[in-house]
Inverse folding.
């Protein structure tokens, strides 16, 4: 069957987008390989794959249960494959492909089409290669949100309500996936989606000469919003039901309290606050456990205790929901707006703003007078929110910058396609052919020149970006050696349980293709966001211990004493006086006996301790 010209052109666009995406995949895979950026994603992977408890489970705490149970199902089918990593890779590179493909469909002329595609590919390679090879679910959520936004605002204008909704089924699925993957990030980025929807609504109003509140408009956008909202409510409701059981419900209260305490407020010093700690039932040794994140060993730390510490912090520091004073936050925002945070990405976005404004002035298209300030205002409000809260890790700020770029990409594509009528490229191909999009004032130098300016900026940054990612990968491979040594040691003594000091593990990540077959790991952490969860309770029960007091099994601190199979691992360079202080407060005469060492050879040395009762003779 022969393809007509239009179908063949469409297949060429899809094939070109595939080749461009594969180029990125092959290049970055060969140069760097893939790691989970943080131990957060490692723990999510371990919970989903069954490496943590022994059985794949959708209860992975961080991502919503409907998505978790699907990923866990794939682990049940083929345990050896890193399905969670595969999900993140497909989501990120799939988002790149969708943006490439829609750009090629959006722009009709060959030179502007290629110019924009090359610019996009350069951007991913120069500015976001770190995020593509170091997987982190917050950033993956941002990739999905950016792709969904771009697909929505570039939907053809003259479609019926039914066709419009049909064309955006994929967009809704991307939004649902992003919501399941990282709900908080989804909500943070949603104002950009609102901006895109508002701008697109107004564009269609100009093209079809319709009133803003016409019934067709309300059905079109109201239907999209209703379907999206119902889909999100459905997966959220399923997650709430899945975690409604008493153990999980109580743990989520602890999880939320822990997030507030560690991510936003911090642990008050014991000195000067001893009376407060005594009032909530904690002594100096337990306060130190909170400081070094090893609070699994304290039977008294729960959601109520953490919430009371947060309330005390607010009272002592005289702060509320926002930690940073407004004047200081504004100063920080202005400073960072000059590229001092986000670096080249911020500067590149600034150039995009200027180019779009220049093109608008050149063609007397004054829509940018409200679009660009509104977009920048939304961006500023979101950044100010993060600054005022006092927490803005790169994986969050980069996500904001990426979705902002997708908004700018849409506006830039409009100008490059048609400098006279800014939205005619969204019409059907037949209408586009009837309208003379390219008049005498539109020469190809505008599109080529614009792309050349952007590519030059990206090309200048590319060597530094590649060097940075290369150095990061070299560091990860070096620390991988230490982490592999620890895992091998534990695997060689697979009948034992090893409890790891939390600050002896934070610098490590894992390759996505680690080759461990997702086997059951016979070690656990003394703290972290999964600590005291039902999943941890299940793991500890395998070794005759409990994370909670009042159970039939002994609580962890007691269960470690004279255990025949439970040990503690910490850096040899770390002081373990905190451990001795804990047992003194529990009035248990013990000593931490060094039973083994491993590691070294230009890496960290790990000590293995066994907690043993001190006999009267030894005393």
């Amino acid at each position: 069957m022969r393809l007509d010209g239009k179908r063949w052109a469409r297949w060429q666009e899809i094939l070109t987008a595939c080749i461009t995406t594969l180029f990125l995949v092959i290049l970055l895979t060969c140069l760097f390989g893939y790691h989970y950026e943080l131990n957060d994603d490692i723990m999510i992977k371990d919970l989903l794959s069954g490496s943590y408890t022994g059985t794949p489970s959708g209860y992975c705490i961080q991502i919503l249960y409907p998505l978790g149970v699907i990923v866990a199902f794939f682990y049940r089918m083929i345990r050896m494959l890193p399905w969670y990593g595969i999900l993140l890779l497909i989501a990120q590179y799939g988002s790149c492909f969708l943006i490439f493909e829609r750009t090629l469909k959006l722009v009709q002329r060959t030179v502007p089409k290629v110019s924009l595609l090359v610019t996009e590919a350069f951007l991913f390679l120069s500015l976001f290669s770190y995020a593509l090879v170091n997987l982190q679910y917050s950033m993956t959520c941002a990739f999905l949100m950016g792709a969904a936004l771009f697909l929505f605002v570039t939907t053809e204008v003259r479609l019926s309500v039914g066709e419009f909704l049909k064309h955006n089924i994929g967009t809704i699925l991307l939004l649902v996936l992003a919501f399941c993957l990282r709900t908080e990030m989804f909500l943070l980025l949603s104002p950009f989606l609102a901006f895109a929807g508002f701008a697109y609504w107004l564009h269609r109003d100009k093209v079809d000469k319709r009133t803003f509140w016409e019934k067709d408009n309300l059905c079109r956008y109201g239907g999209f919003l209703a379907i999206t909202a119902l889909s999100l409510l459905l997966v959220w409701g399923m997650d709430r039901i899945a975690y409604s059981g008493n153990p999980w419900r109580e743990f989520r209260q602890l999880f939320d309290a822990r997030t507030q305490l560690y991510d936003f407020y911090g642990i008050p010093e014991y000195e000067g606050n001893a009376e407060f700690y005594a009032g909530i039932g904690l002594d100096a040794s337990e306060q130190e456990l909170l400081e070094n994140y090893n609070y699994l060993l304290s039977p008294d730390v729960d959601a109520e205790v953490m919430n009371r510490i947060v309330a005390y912090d607010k009272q002592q520091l005289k702060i509320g929901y926002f930690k940073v004073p407004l004047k200081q936050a504004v100063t920080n925002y202005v400073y960072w707006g000059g590229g001092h945070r986000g670096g080249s990405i911020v500067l590149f976005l600034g150039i995009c703003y200027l180019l779009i404004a220049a093109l608008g002035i050149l063609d007397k298209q004054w829509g940018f007078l409200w679009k660009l300030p509104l977009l920048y205002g939304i961006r500023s409000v979101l950044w100010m929110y993060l600054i005022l809260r006092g927490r803005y890790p790169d994986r969050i700020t980069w996500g904001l910058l990426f979705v902002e770029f997708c908004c700018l990409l849409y506006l830039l594509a409009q100008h490059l396609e048609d400098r006279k009528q800014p939205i005619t490229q969204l019409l059907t191909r037949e209408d586009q052919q009837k309208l003379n999009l390219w008049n005498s004032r539109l020469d190809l130098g505008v599109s080529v020149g614009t792309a050349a300016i952007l590519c030059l900026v990206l090309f200048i940054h590319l060597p530094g970006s590649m060097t940075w990612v290369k150095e990061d990968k070299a560091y990860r491979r070096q620390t991988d050696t230490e982490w592999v040594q620890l895992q091998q040691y534990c695997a060689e003594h697979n009948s034992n349980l090893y409890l790891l000091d939390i600050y002896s593990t934070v610098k490590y990540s894992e390759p996505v293709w680690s080759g461990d077959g997702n086997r059951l790991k016979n070690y656990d952490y003394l703290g972290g966001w999964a600590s005291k969860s039902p999943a941890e309770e299940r793991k500890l029960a395998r070794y005759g211990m409990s994370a909670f007091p009042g159970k039939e099994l002994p609580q962890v601190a007691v269960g470690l004493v004279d255990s025949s199979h439970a040990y503690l691992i910490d850096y040899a360079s770390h002081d373990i006086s905190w451990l001795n202080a804990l047992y003194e407060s529990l009035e248990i005469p013990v000593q931490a006996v060094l039973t083994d060492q491993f590691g070294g050879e230009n890496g960290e040395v790990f000590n293995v301790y066994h907690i043993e009762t001190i006999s009267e003779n030894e005393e």
Observations:
- The first helix runs from residue 5 to 31.
- The beta strands are 35-36, 134-135, 497-500, 523-525, 566-571, 590-599, 605-613.
- The longest strand covers residues 590-599.
